[in-house]
Amino acid sequence: MPDGAPAGGAREQGFFDDHPRFLETSSTSAGVRRLNLRHRALVEANRDVLDGARVLDIASHDGRWSLAALEAGAAHVTGIEARPELVAHAEQTLATYGARQGSYRFVTGDVFAVLADADLDVDVIQCFGFLYHTLRYPEFFSLLRRLEPRHLLMDTRVANVSGRIIQVLVNESTRQAHAAADDYTEGTKTLVGWPSPGALRLMLRTYGFRVEDTYDWEAVGRTVGTKLVGRYQRGERVTWRCRWDGVTAGSADDDVLDDDVLDDEGVDDA
């Protein structure tokens, strides 16, 4: 019976039942049933690409997905996290659960600054819950492209609208569930974006990534109910597996802005 089954059936145990410390090391932790479902989608569904891989965990938080990757067979995980207290939790928790020394390391710092300076050998990038905490998409995907990973695993909020748009919002950097402060934070306010699926696919294609698989949350919702996976069912969140094919200029011709839409008169004022 699936995790999150209705009352009356025995709930199947999952990763977060076996690692309950993660329920205490983050103020953003969801219920264990939803976390177990996400583990199935983000990690179990990608065991084939994680096995033996060198993994980069973007915004690694308290180390939950780093440990999950190691237990799925990853050879090594490097986590980047801006908040020092979360890095401390990650290091303590992985040691507590017996993760092999030398199989992981956590770097405290701004994701963009670390990626710009680090010399990393990466097979798989995990990007779970970071894309809606930034507005610096060209910079971000350009930095990922330089790493030449085989796969990019993504789980993110999106703007559930048609077309290629980015909804702009403000995060409060003092809140753990929001974006950490960076060089562009004004006071404690950071501009972030929720790209539509169409916009996200276009950005990925432009930097050489292709969506290889879309996790079927609709099927999960039919089994466990909307309460646990409602955002996924409503199209407000997506889980994608992407492959980097090295084609960094592969957008279709119809993706390129035509001269006649530069302004109302079809003239570029520049």
Can you characterise this structure?
With 270 residues, the chain is α/β, with parallel strands linked by helices. The protein has a domain at 15-157 and 209-247: Vaccinia Virus protein VP39 (Rossmann fold, 3-Layer(aba) Sandwich). Helices cover 31% and strands 21% of the residues. It contains 10 helices and 9 strands. A 7-stranded mixed beta sheet has the order 3-2-1-4-5-9-8, with helices on both faces. Strand 2, helix 5 and strand 3 form a beta-alpha-beta unit. The termini are far apart. Residues 1-9 have low confidence and may be disordered.
The first-level CATH class name of the domain at 15-157 and 209-247: Alpha Beta
Corresponding CATH architecture of the domain at 15-157 and 209-247: 3-Layer(aba) Sandwich
Stretches where pLDDT falls below 50 for ≥5 residues? 1-9
| Helix residue percentage | 25-40%
Number of helices: 10
Described by strand count, sense and barrel closure, the largest sheet is:
7 strands, mixed
Can you identify the CATH superfamily of the domain at 15-157 and 209-247? Vaccinia Virus protein VP39
General shape: globular
Short synopsis of the structure:
The protein is α/β, with parallel strands linked by helices and 270 residues long. The chain has a domain of 182 residues: Rossmann fold (3-Layer(aba) Sandwich). The protein contains 10 helices and 9 strands.
Features:
270 residues; Rossmann fold; alpha/beta; single chain; 21% strand; two-stranded antiparallel ribbon
Layout of helices and strands:
Layout: H1 15-18, H2 32-42, H3 47-50, E1 54-58, H4 64-71, E2 76-81, H5 84-96, E3 104-108, H6 111-117, E4 124-128, H7 137-147, E5 151-157, E6 166-172, E7 189-195, H8 197-206, E8 209-214, H9 217-224, H10 226-233, E9 237-244
Parallel strand pairs: 1-2, 1-4, 2-3, 4-5
Antiparallel strand pairs: 5-9, 6-7, 8-9
Helix pairs in contact: 9-10
